Every structure is written in C-alpha cells, then in structure tokens.
Amino acid sequence: MTRHDTSQPVLEVRDFAKHFVLHEQHKTIPSAQHVDLDVHVGRLTALTGPTGAGKSSVLKGIYRTYKPQSGRLLYRRADGEQIDLAQADDHQVLALRRGEIGFVTQFLHALPRQAALDVVAQPLYQQGGDRHAARERAADLLAALNVPERLWELAPATFSGGERQRVNLARGLVSRPRLLLLDEPTASLDPDTTERVIALLEQLKADGTAMLAIFHQPELVARLADDVVQLRPPAPINAIEDVA
C-alpha cells in the first residue's frame, strides 16, 4: 500500500465502548457506546456529539491511555500489518506512539525545566533522529505557529495558555505521524494562530496523514473534515446501574 492509497482505512473502529467505574459508590458511568468509524490516508474524520458522548474517550482508547471495555481498534501499520490496539501489549503500543501514532491533547505535559525546542523535538529524539536536525524541525514549527523565538530556550511551564498549546501542537505535528489524533487542538488559540494551525493540518493531509479530530468550533469541522461521525449520547444519568 502506498502512502496515498485510500482503498484501505488506516484505522477501523468497530463497536467501541468505554465506561468508568466508581468503585466506592458501586456505580458505572457510561461514556462512548457502539462507536464505529474509519479513518483514511489523507483525510480528516471529525468526531461530533453532545458533551459526555465520549469523544475524548474514543481518542484515548485508540492511543491506549484508556483500555476499552469492548470493541476492536484495527490499526494498519506502515508495513501493512493490522493490529488491534484494544488487545496490543504495552510494548507494541509504545512502539506505535514513537513511530506512527501522534496525539495532540488539550494540555501540555512536559518536564518542568525542559526548553520548548526540546519539548517539541522529543518525538524525533525518540525515533533516534539527529539532535540538530530535530531542533531545526522544531524551530520551523514553532515559528510557523507564531511562538516568539525568545521563548524557544525557555521552559513552557512559564508560558501563557495559548503559548503552551502552540508548543503542544508543534510537538504533535513534528514527526508527521501516519495517524494523528487531535482533541480540540485550537482551544485557547487566537484567530491568527488558528488559521496557521489549519494551514499546517491541510498540509499534513496533503502529505497523507490520516486524522481523527474533535473541534469545539463547528466552523472548523465544516472547513477541515472530510468525514463526520456523530456520537450518540450515553445512557441518561437515571439509568446508571449498580455494579456490585
């Protein structure tokens, strides 16, 4: 399969379900239920639905931050082999995170005193890339996202919320992953920076990256999404059952 062959999905999600158990209260809180979707090379699939429908739970299930209760998460690797992320062991998941699957969350997690350039370049370091080339690529993305050069050698912990989110985005995009998961990537960004992000995402799509995204703004779904999957709301609160 070539990078731009869209005949087979990069990711197939089938009947995914996730719930959360409050053990002390013997309660189950439903989240995502009966989720089916495909994500293709060079296309962006947007997840929509009401608050509490489990949009973020789907992304975290694919990235294996959460382990699903049921369903299949069939990811097709660069070599063509298909792996069920729901059943993959930790070593397989970590290898895919390093080499093929990226995730931009709403919050930046980084070592407290690590320079922004190194935070962004970290995925390339983990792939064994040349340190100088990795920092150059990181600098290009920070500049493209309008992060002032005077901040590049400083720790993002000192940055504003919008500046931290730009660093977070740059880190997620730097390795050009085959599958990119985006959880409200433009939250807290000003309109000019949002347009810069849109341009970068459009370029990644043109280069063949498959994307699954949640956007707070409906207009971004209209502009960027090639496919839209609407999640149904979970069971109402009065239908939560005891699990004891």
Give a description of the structure.
This protein has 244 residues and is of the alpha/beta class. The chain is built from seven helices and eleven strands. The chain has helices at residues 55-63, 90-99, 116-126, 131-144, 161-173, 191-207, 218-224; strands at residues 11-17, 19-22, 27-30, 35-39, 44-48, 70-76, 82-84, 101-104, 179-183, 210-214, 227-230. Strands 8-9-10-5-11 form a five-stranded parallel beta sheet, with helices on both faces. The protein has a four-stranded antiparallel beta sheet with strand order 4-1-6-7, covered by helices on one side. Strand 2 and strand 3 form a beta hairpin. It starts with 10 loop residues before the first strand and ends in a 14-residue tail after the last strand.
In short:
This protein has 244 residues and is of the alpha/beta class.
